[in-house]
Amino acid sequence: MEAKSNQKMKILCLHGFRTSGKFLQKQISKWDPSIFASFDLDFPDGKFPAGGKSDIEGIFPPPYFEWFQFNKEFTEYTNLEECISYLTEYITSNGPFDGFLGFSQGATLGALLLGYQAQGKVLKEHPPVKMFVSISGSKFRDPSICEVAYKDNINVKSVHFIGAKDWLKLPSEELASAFHNPLIITHPQGHTVPRLDEAATNQLRDWTMEILQSTNSVFSVSNDKKQLQNGEAKKERQQEEEDCNKKDKKEEVAIEEKKEVELLEVVN
Questions:
Q1: How far is CA 137 from CA 45, 93, 107, 163, 228, in A?
Q2: CA-CA distance, 183 to 177, in Å (whole number)?
Q3: Which keywords describe this protein according to UniProt (predicted)?
Q4: Is the N-terminal amide bond of 127 cis, ω within 30° of 0?
Q5: What's the angle, vertex CA 181, arms to CA 179 and CA 185, rounded to 5?
Q6: Is the pLDDT of residue 234 over 50?
Q7: Distance between CA 156 and CA 118 in Å, rounded?
């Protein structure tokens, strides 16, 4: 499951609680299209139909979905394991994916998958995910989850959008601290996919371009290595052919010499 250099990098985009993949796609469309022009974005719907009222009713048409359910303190979760199994199967079947992007519940879930992959709990056969865009994400609070998912700093290039008026501002900052050398982009808005000003747009575009250039460099080195290996293999084949030809000629000469000896014996 290795990405090819002539394909766009794939990003799995996970929507927020009781919304949908199409709604997140509309939210992201507020951003400058050049930011993700070189990426293939995939927007699946959550595993479960919304179990209650959606905040976007009357704003965006249904159906609405949720990834899993939780209590008010966000310490107990229902259907989380089923959701993880569903997503890992989706990623394996539709990937490989180079990155995750998520809003709120989707970002929280994406970070969990990254932490679990780093610890060898899920996606063992999937290539390491290279990048993560978190918008209003947070950590899980169950100690049994935290001890695994956030055991070590998650070594994935990440950018975290944190709103000054977001009710999840502090949890978003905590999630960012779980990553190695994260890029944090603040905005003055609340719990939403923010509209980006010129400075934030440039920051995010530079960040994605750096990842693209780094990945292309790896592909270039890999291709050079393959070409070198192919060239060496070709030389080996040519040498084998030359050796075979020499052997055949020697056998032909030996046969002719034998025939001459036999002919002389018959004549004499």
A1: 18, 25, 5, 11, 45
A2: 10
A3: Hydrolase
A4: no
A5: 90
A6: yes
A7: 9
Residues facing residue 10 across a β-bridge = 40
**Strand partners of residue 11:** 41, 99
pTM: 0.79
Strand partners, 102: 14, 134
The model's pLDDT over 247-256, given as tens digits with 9 standing for 90+, comes to: 555 555 554 5
Report whether 160 contacts 35 (CB < 8 A). no
CB 160, CB 172: distance < 8 Å: yes
The residue among 132, 135, 136 whose CA lies nearest residue 171 is 136
pLDDT band of 229, cuts 50, 70, 90: low
User: What's the whole-number mean pLDDT along residues 184-197?
Assistant: 96
What's the mean pLDDT when you consider all of the chain? 86
Tokens of 6: 């002539």
